Amino acid sequence: MAELGGNREVLQFLVEQKKIIHKNSLYALPTVNLATYDKRRVISQRKLKAIQQDIGLIGWIPTILGIALTGSVAAKNASKDDDIDLFIVTRKNTLWMTRMLVELLVFLNGKLRRPNSIHVNDLWCLNMWVDSDHLEMKKHDLYIAHEIVQAQWIVDKTGIEQRFIEENKWVKKFMMGEVSKKFSIRQLTDNLQFSKLTLLISYFLSLISRILDWFCYRAQLAYMRSRLTTEYVTRHTAFFHPHDVRADVLKKYERIMSEIRNRK
């Protein structure tokens, strides 16, 4: 499913060849039910408004720099029973102590999705974490590029969204036309000047947070170790995806492209 934009000549050619369909500025494979998608778009908008109203529950935390919606809600393709996927960026060396606090607050408010949750409607799935020194996604492929482009930032402190885009400008090679404009290269500068006392205080606070975060990391890793499968966990990143949807989507994409090529 794609909205109007990108290389329109290519899209029009695919429509004429009946490879895809076009309706109300949307392009999709012929097997997609656009009426169902319209309903899902309305549901996604409702979920977006709900999370925007409630995100203050964790958005105030000083070590959180940014929060973005991902998954079906960001793609405007959510069903009423879907959870809400969140991607959280923390200050460097604070990921694990931030995660501990966030999970506690969300759990106490009855919004936390757990691995064994049965009814997940509107629960928060805190499945993607990075700190501000590790913004670049390690895997560069069409699936990750699409996830990055469709992400909707609902908390953005100190321009973290733009920094994230700068670190992932490789996305441009997978995106066409208007979509890639979001990823135009812009030089970031920092002209702030600090006194020696301020720098000294900052250093000691950073050292304390690094030590505390290390203990939080070791404690959470020990708790999770027996449950980890395909999840990717390091000191500075955490991706909790027990089922590798990315691999499934890429395989399906390659199969569809192969079928299209064989029809020529």
- In DSSP terms (H or I, runs of 4 or more residues), the helix count works out at 10
Cα Rg: 21 Å
Contiguous uncertain segments of 5+ residues: 185-192
What is the overall shape? globular
Distance between the termini: 22 Å
Instruction: Please estimate the helix content.
Output: 40-55%
Largest sheet: 6 strands, mixed
Q: Helix and strand succession? A: EHEEHHEHEHEHEHHHEEH
The helix-and-strand class reads alpha+beta
Q: What proportion of the residues form beta strands (DSSP E)? A: 15-25%
Task: Compose a concise summary of this entry.
This is Polymerase nucleotidyl transferase domain-containing protein. Helices cover 46% and strands 15% of the residues.
Describe, in plain words, how this protein is organized in 3D:
46% of the residues lie in helices and 15% in strands. The chain is of the alpha+beta class and 264 residues long. It has one domain (47-186, 195-263). The strands form 2 sheets. Strands 7-4-5-6-9-8 form a 6-stranded mixed sheet, sandwiched between helices. A 3-stranded antiparallel sheet has the order 1-3-2, covered by helices on one side. A hairpin with a 2-residue loop joins strand 2 (21-23) and strand 3. Helix 5 (95-108) packs across helix 9 (196-224). The radius of gyration is 21 Å and the shape is globular. The model is unreliable at 185-192 (pLDDT under 50). This is Polymerase nucleotidyl transferase domain-containing protein.
